[in-house]
Amino acid sequence: MATYRIVCTVENPSGHSNQQNHIVAVGVGDDPNKAQRKWTLDEVLRAIDRGDLFYTKGMNTGKVALVEKYTCAPCSRVHIRSAADKVTDNNLNHIPHCSGSTQLTQGLSPNDGLMATEHPALVRM
Ligand SMILES: [Zn+2]
C-alpha cells in the first residue's frame, strides 16, 4: 500500500448539468508545484482498488483531504472526487490544472502518435 499526493488535475467537462467536471487524469508528487508522475483516471482507480491512498493538501490551509471513488450516475462511470473532509484549497476540483501535455500521452499511445484532438483529456490543454 502506498500513499500519493495529487498536486494537479486534468478535467473534462462532464456535460451534465449541476455536476462538477470529470477528472480524467492527475499529477502526483511531493512538490505541489511539479507533478512527478501523471496517472490516468483508470490507473488511479486500480491503485485505489489495491488499497493505495490518494489525497490532496491545501496550499494555504495545509489540510489534507482523501480522494475517493464515486459513480457518476448520468454516465455510469466511476470517477474520483475529494472526500467529505475537503476545504476549498484541497478540493480536487480546485487544485491547479496540470500543465504540459507530453507526459499525458504516456501509456495512451506507444509511439506518441496520439493527436491532441483525439483524446478528450488533451483538448483543453
Ligand atoms: Zn458523468
What does this structure look like?
- The protein has 125 residues and is mainly beta.
- It has one domain (3-123).
- The chain contains two helices and six strands, in the order βββαβββα.
- It has a six-stranded mixed sheet with strand order 3-2-1-4-5-6.
- The relative contact order is 0.22.
- A hairpin with an 8-residue loop joins β2 and β3 (37-40).
- It has helices at 41-50, 120-123, and strands at residues 3-12, 22-28, 37-40, 53-57, 64-72, 77-82.
- The structure holds zinc ion.
- Zinc ion (ZN) is lined by residues 14, 16, 22, 72, 74-75, 77.
- Zinc ion binds at residues 14, 16, 22, 72, 74-75, 77.
C-alpha-based Rg, rounded: 14 Å
Global outline: globular
Bound molecules: zinc ion
Q: How many β strands by DSSP?
A: 6
Going across the biggest sheet, name each strand in turn: 3-2-1-4-5-6
Give the number of helices: 2
Q: How much helicity do the residues have?
A: 10-25%
What's the helix-strand series? EEEHEEEH
Q: Give a quick account of the main beta sheet: strands, pairing sense, barrel closure.
A: 6 strands, mixed
Count of discrete domains = 1
Distance between the termini: 32 Å
Which secondary-structure class do the elements indicate? mainly beta
